[in-house]
Design a protein that fits this description.
- This protein is an alpha+beta fold.
- It folds into two domains: 120 residues, Hypothetical protein ph0010, domain 1 (Glycoprotein, Type 4 Pilin); 73 residues, 2-Layer Sandwich (Dna Ligase, domain 1), CATH 3.30.1490.
- Helices cover 30% and strands 26% of the residues.
- It has six helices and nine strands; from the N terminus they run H-H-E-E-H-E-E-H-E-E-H-H-E-E-E.
- A five-stranded antiparallel beta sheet has the order 2-1-3-8-9. Strands 4-7-5-6 form a four-stranded antiparallel beta sheet.
- The two termini are 29 Å apart.
Length: 207
């Protein structure tokens, strides 16, 4: 799915409208006919909320759907509400906070299983700045979006280890025989300020 900044702005507006209507009016909106038709293709999506102050930005919620099981417009609405109300790491967002929260949307490609003969080959088959990762092991799974290792300056091995930790495993679980590692790509857009202009987030690694 090819998306430009206008698409990103429309999808983030849909997400913000969904959150505002749910928090203020206790209703789950439906996308308008034009938006529903335009964004009817199924896709995985994550919505990230960040609380901003004068000198800082802190994660306030992030929930999504890695698999393309829903039409994009429905996935955006559901993920937006969930990120504001159901992220177990945070208390629900209060309606009074909305003016201090920025939204970021990641539209995902279909996750692809990485096949290797030797787990050490995983490092050669993923690329920081392009791929997000999902790790499935015998007791759980974890996902990290492609912008995460860029933001923290991780290399491929560190990225694998952190995704294992996100799954609830030890950092080296990618060496387990029954562990499965998936990669995906994402197109990412974010508000530069709460309710403000929307830009595409670059995922290239800074040298």
């Amino acid at each position: 799915m090819r998306l430009d900044e206008q698409n990103g702005a429309e999808l983030i507006k849909l997400a913000r409208d969904a959150i505002e209507n749910y928090l203020i009016k206790k209703i789950i909106i439906k996308a308008g006919d034009n938006v529903a038709t335009k964004y009817n293709e199924k896709a995985g999506v994550f919505i990230t909320l960040n609380s901003v102050s004068k000198n800082s930005e802190e994660l306030r919620g992030c929930i999504g759907f890695p698999m393309p099981d829903k039409a994009l417009h429905d996935a955006v609405i559901n993920a937006a509400i969930a990120s504001a109300t159901d992220d177990p790491r945070f208390k629900p967002v209060a309606k009074e906070e909305l003016g201090r929260v920025t939204l970021e949307i990641s539209v995902l490609t279909q996750p692809e299983l990485i096949t290797v003969k030797d787990p050490r080959q995983y490092k050669e088959k993923i690329k920081v700045g392009r791929d997000g990762l999902i790790v499935h092991w015998r007791y759980g799974s974890g996902l990290l979006l492609p912008q995460v290792p860029v933001e923290y300056g991780w290399d491929e091995e560190h990225f694998l280890c952190e995704t294992c930790v996100k799954s609830g495993a030890t950092p080296d679980c990618w060496f387990y025989e029954d562990t499965k590692v998936y990669r995906f790509e994402a197109t990412v857009f974010k508000e530069v300020e709460p309710g403000g202009n929307v830009i595409r987030v670059p995922l290239d690694v800074k040298k």
